[in-house]
Amino acid sequence: MRVSSNQYHITVNASLQNSNTQLEKLMGQMSSGNRLTRPSDDPIAHVRISRLQREEASIAQYKDNIGALSNRMTQSETVLSSINSDLLSTRDLLVWALDGGNTGEDLSAMATNLESLRDALYASALTKDQEGSYLFSGTLSKTATVGFNAAAAAGTRYTVGGNSEQQQVVVGNGLTQPANVTLGDEMAAMLNTLDQAIEAIKGGGTTANNPATRASLQAALTGVDTGMDQVSTKISKLGGAQNIVSTLETNWGNLSTANQTAVLDYSQLNYATAAVQLNTLMSAIKATQSAYGKVSQLSLFDAL
User: Fold this and answer.
1) Does any domain span residue 267?
2) Residue 40 domain flag
3) Which positions fall inside the Flagellin N-terminal domain (predicted)?
4) Residue 266 exposed, middle or buried by CB count within 10 Å (0-12, 13-18, 19+)
5) Is 199 domain-assigned?
6) In a domain, 292, yes or no
7) What is the pLDDT of residues 120-176, one digit of tens each?
């Protein structure tokens, strides 16, 4: 079959252009270290990488949520532990106050200490987070956990604020974890009974043997014991929740590492293979150019 000179030139130029295009693509891959410069390079790998990247975005959000949740839990546990410590000190004073050998002056002095503990407990119940929201007010985080009316009678000055609803945080696909602990009901009731007992003994004109005074002190002691049990239960639940969250954080971290490794496997250029391809392309281009140059110099006059 005869091939015209023009057709030969077109064929060789097309071959060189194709080789140069492949060379340019390969050089770009080697420069970036990424074998996928566009989706068409490997459509299946591109789809898999896109799916992994979407999953990575979700994991990053879960990990951010878990980080914020862990901080909140740690803060809540710290405050609850402080409350528990103050309740224990309050209990010791109430047990001492119930001793029938105490004089009115003794009880009055104890009342001063109990007032300090009561105020500390109230302040702890009103703890806010870094955003200025009440830590223990449920979903009504801008409402004080416990209200206070100084004009009300002892035993009714403290009122429940906020609510007992839980703030759910997404920590996984279909997984949520409560972010808050509520204290309104427990603290208001305990503070009222304690306040009433303080009112009964602070004047110095009574003793623990007085039936009304003793009943008030006993009610306060019962309230404090109940409060300690409730706070201890909340601390225990927080500890369990923190273990769950810590495990989730570790699992998401491991999955993220696996995803990142998979993305590299799909997209990272194998430089050894690329070097072989580069040498092959360069040799092919050089051979084509050499052959083209020699053939182009041929003429029918050379046969004469």
Assistant:
1) no
2) no
3) 3-139
4) middle
5) yes
6) no
7) 999 999 999 989 999 999 999 999 999 999 999 999 999 999 999 999 999 999 999
pTM beyond 0.85: the answer is: no
Cα 252 to Cα 254: distance, rounded to the nearest angstrom: 5
